[in-house]
Amino acid sequence: MPKIDLKKELKQLYHASAKGVVEVQVPRLRFLMVDGEGDPNTSPWYAEAVEALFSVSYTAKFMVKKAAQTDYAVMPLEGLWWSDDMSSFTSNDRSKWKWTMMIMQPHFVEQAVIEAALAEVKRKKGLPALDELRLEDFMEGRCAQILHVGPFSEEGPTIQRVHDFIGERSALAGRHHEIYLSDVRRADPARWKTIIRQPME
Questions:
Q1: Pair 16, 24: CB distance under 8 Å
Q2: Which class is 13-28+140-201 in CATH?
Q3: Angstrom distances, CA of residue 102 to CA of 30, 65, 165
Q4: Which residues lie closer than 8 Å to 171 by C-beta, 6 or more apart?
Q5: Which residues, including other chains, have CB under 8 Å from residue 28's CB and lie 6 or more apart?
Q6: Radius of gyration in angstroms for the set of CA atoms belonging to the chain, rounded to a whole number
Q7: CB of 142 within 8 A of CB of 23?
Q8: DSSP letter, residue 94
Q9: pLDDT of residue 126
Q10: What's the pLDDT at 91?
């Protein structure tokens, strides 16, 4: 059974270099999403939201593999970040941060499969965040992105490079977007790889 790897098929969106900021065109993609707010390091809801996303995504994967004989790699966790007061990012006041965590789903994983996976995970785990999950199309269009290597607390200069790149060509639009390529539970923080993406007008 061949295994579909969307990270390879969408290489320009899920592989980035730390050497320089590049412009990419992001098409409409479908994501399993959940919203929240507060410090991701201390918020129980954040941890529950991420667990719910991965639990449903992996359950859907195994349902598709069994029923359709199609195997695929579950995509990485992604996050959209913003705040009503954007100075809370420069001051690192994480209690005021708002976020949407999400995992991209292949186009052939239909709503019915996600609903069945949700029901299965509810039966087995009963995670509180399951009721807040939704499947939604999301399109960013023109964006700038770069790879950040290192802990999240040191992203500032990398984000500034993205903003400077956009400032020379256009203007910022949409929400700050991060794609987490490393397993932060196992990898050394100095080696964490995160794609920093920002939509532009």
A1: no
A2: alpha beta
A3: 10, 21, 26
A4: 200, 201
A5: 137, 138, 139
A6: 17
A7: yes
A8: G
A9: 86
A10: 65
At residue 150, does pLDDT exceed 80?
A: yes
Amino acid in position 32:
L
How many C-beta atoms lie closer than 10 Å to residue 152's C-beta?
Answer: 14
Which of these, 88, 91, 105, 90, lies nearest to 37 by C-alpha position? 88
Please state whether beta strands 3-4 and 134-138 pair in parallel, antiparallel, or not at all (unpaired): unpaired
Range(s) within the chain of domains with CATH label 3.20.80.10: 13-28+140-201, 29-138
List, in sequence order, the alpha helices (H) in the chain: 6-9, 11-14, 44-68, 87-90, 111-124, 156-167
Per-residue confidence band for 137, with pLDDT thresholds at 50, 70 and 90 = very high
**Topology, domain 29-138:** Multidrug-efflux Transporter 1 Regulator Bmrr; Chain A (3.20.80)
Question: Does residue 95 surpass a pLDDT of 90?
Answer: no
Query: What SS3 string covers 97-149?
Result: CEEEEEEECCCCCCHHHHHHHHHHHHHHCCCHHHHHCEEEEECCEEEEEEEEE
Beta bridge partners of 138: 29
Which pair of tokens denotes residue 167? 């400032």
Rounded to whole angstroms, how far apart are CA atoms 108 and 111?
Answer: 9
The DSSP code for 89 is H
